Every structure is written in structure tokens, then in C-alpha cells.
């Protein structure tokens, strides 16, 4: 959660400025522990965040490393955490993939940041600079990072799987009214022996919860009210399903590990599609085993599905 462009810094969680001395930092930590402890009426998820923040800055050595990596130190060293991933050098067999995960969000982020700044920005991924830009721009970068991380996880599934990233969602009657902004792309399609799935990668900058089959959480209406990610994902899947004449076995929302209270959260069948929310670290296991109720696909059927999708998809 602390490495997301959307998340609060360790200092913000502890309620102090990044310039306080160590003793003041320690006092703030103890105060926040008392305020957020579940036994005294505090929020358990916030209590965990406070503990995690202290793990990052609780000693002078840890704090110095955190400051260098997150743009709080005057002698910042180069940090690649938010920059575009470099080319892979290992030769292990990987899932076959097409499209550029997160690529469009990165391009939009850089273009809009330059426009917002009013001049050329030497390093749009510098952590100290990123913290100054509006939240809606940081969200673009957070989404790009989330999609790149999911693509890496899917790639590690091996040769039995095929993935398509940044799939353009065609317009048409299946989309329904008032959905143009949500339907411009489906982040990931994954096909393997366990089934065919549509995936959305998201990062809301904090722990999320669910109500009525939709996401609610830390942004007081942001995830559910502004984006309605589950609803958008199901509609994206429906449009692609009709265009390619295939049936998806499930919809999967992938979140950073720290943003989900448990590894896998099944939301049941929504609009006739099984929906699962999963931590990124548990995604490979879920895709290998399949979502609840999924069936094994193999042989001619797997080949036919791959061919139909390959002939239909266009990239955003």
C-alpha cells in the first residue's frame, strides 16, 4: 500500500511530517496504536497500516532507506519502482501474451502531467514529483502499475496459458447506455486449461470492502461511486463475449495484496458470471485451479477459443 502512487506515505499514516525527529516519530506511532487498536474501538485495517508504517521507518536505518526510495530524502537515489518495466532477461517458458499491459495509462499519465505542469517534466516518475500531481493523474499511474504487475503474474503461468492485454472493447448495443468511459478497454483476457477469464487490475490506494456485489472502500464513494469496477468489468466481458462468440468462465478483479483483507474473496454469480476478487500474489493459484464452478478446457475447445479471441481482439 505504501508503494502505490495513491496510497498515504508512512508519515501520513503516523500523522506527522516527514521532517520530525525520531523521538517524535516514535511518540506518534504509539499514539496511533492507541487510537486505532480494535480493542478500544479502532479500525483493525487502519491499525495494521500503522504497524506496517512503523516497520518501514521505525529505525534510523530503515527510515533513511524509505526516504531515499520515496522521495523524502535530499540525496534521493534513482528508483525504478514507478518507471516502465525493463525487458526480461530470463528464458523460462512463459504464457503467450499480446498487447501492452498498462501502456496506454502510462502514455496518458505522461502527457497529462506535462500539460498540468505547463512545461517539460524531466522525470514524471520521480516519487517526490508524483506526490504533487492531482489524484486523478496519480490514479492513471497506479492503474498502469497494477496492470503491469498482473501481466507479469499471468506470464509466469507458463506455456499452457494465453493472455491478451489492453483489449479494446468494441462499441455496440451490448454496451448499453452511459458506459462509454468505462468500456474503452478490458485490461486482461486469460485463457488456460482452467477456463476463460476477463480480468481488471485496480489500485484504490487502500483497503477495500464490498457491498451488494460492488467495491466500496477508502475513497468514500470513489471506487464504488465513480468507477463501479465490478459493474464495468462485467459489461466489458459481455461486449467482448458477444463480439468473439465465446463464453467467459469468470470475472476477476486483481488488487494489491495490502488492499484486500483476505487472499480470495468470492462475490458469487453476478449477471450470470462468477466474480472473484483476489490478491495479486494469489492470482496464479486461482487461474491454475479455476474460479468456483469453472470447468476444465482442453484439446479442440481450447484451440477454438484461442482462435476466436485472436481473430476478434484489437488493442486499445
TrEMBL record:
<dbReference type="Pfam" id="PF00226">
    <property type="entry name" value="DnaJ"/>
</dbReference>
<dbReference type="InterPro" id="IPR001623">
    <property type="entry name" value="DnaJ_domain"/>
</dbReference>
<feature type="region of interest" description="Disordered">
    <location>
        <begin position="81"/>
        <end position="103"/>
    </location>
</feature>
<protein>
    <submittedName>
        <fullName>J domain-containing protein</fullName>
    </submittedName>
</protein>
<dbReference type="InterPro" id="IPR036869">
    <property type="entry name" value="J_dom_sf"/>
</dbReference>
<dbReference type="InterPro" id="IPR052276">
    <property type="entry name" value="Diphthamide-biosynth_chaperone"/>
</dbReference>
<feature type="domain" description="J">
    <location>
        <begin position="9"/>
        <end position="70"/>
    </location>
</feature>
Amino acid at each position: 500500500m505504501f508503494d502505490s502512487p495513491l496510497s498515504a506515505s508512512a508519515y501520513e499514516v503516523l500523522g506527522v511530517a516527514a521532517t520530525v525527529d525520531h523521538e517524535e516519530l516514535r511518540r506518534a506511532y504509539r499514539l496511533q496504536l492507541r487510537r486505532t487498536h480494535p480493542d478500544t474501538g479502532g479500525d483493525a485495517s487502519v491499525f495494521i497500516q500503522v504497524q506496517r508504517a512503523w516497520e518501514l521507518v521505525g529505525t534510523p536505518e530503515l527510515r533513511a532507506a524509505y526516504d531515499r526510495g520515496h522521495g523524502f530524502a535530499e540525496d534521493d537515489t534513482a528508483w525504478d519502482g514507478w518507471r516502465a518495466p525493463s525487458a526480461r532477461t530470463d528464458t523460462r517458458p512463459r504464457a503467450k501474451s499480446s498487447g501492452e499491459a498498462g501502456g496506454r495509462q502510462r502514455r496518458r499519465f505522461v502527457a497529462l502531467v506535462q500539460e498540468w505542469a505547463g512545461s517539460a517534466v524531466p522525470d514524471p516518475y520521480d516519487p517526490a514529483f508524483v506526490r504533487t500531481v492531482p489524484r486523478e493523474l496519480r490514479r492513471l499511474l497506479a492503474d498502469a502499475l497494477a496492470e503491469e504487475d498482473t501481466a507479469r503474474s499471468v506470464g509466469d503461468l507458463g506455456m499452457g496459458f494465453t493472455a491478451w492485454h489492453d483489449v479494446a472493447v468494441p462499441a455496440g448495443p451490448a454496451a448499453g447506455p452511459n458506459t462509454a468511459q468505462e468500456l474503452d478497454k478490458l485490461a486482461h483476457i486469460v485463457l488456460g486449461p482452467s477456463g476463460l477469464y476477463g480480468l481488471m487490475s485496480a489500485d484504490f490506494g487502500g483497503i477495500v470492502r464490498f457491498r451488494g456485489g460492488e467495491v466500496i472502500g477508502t475513497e468514500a464513494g470513489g471506487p464504488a461511486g465513480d468507477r463501479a469496477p465490478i459493474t464495468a468489468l462485467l459489461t466489458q466481458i459481455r461486449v467482448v463475449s458477444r463480439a468473439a462468440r465465446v463464453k467467459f468462465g469468470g470475472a476477476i478483479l486483481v488488487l494489491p495484496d495490502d488492499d484486500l483483507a483476505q487472499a480470495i474473496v468470492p462475490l458469487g454469480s453476478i449477471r450470470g458470471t462468477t466474480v472473484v476478487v483476489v490478491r495479486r500474489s494469489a492470482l496464479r493459484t486461482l487461474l491454475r485451479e479455476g474460479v468456483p464452478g469453472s470447468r476444465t478446457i482442453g484439446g479442440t475447445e481450447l484451440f477454438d477459443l484461442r482462435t476466436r479471441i485472436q481473430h476478434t481482439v484489437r488493442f486499445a
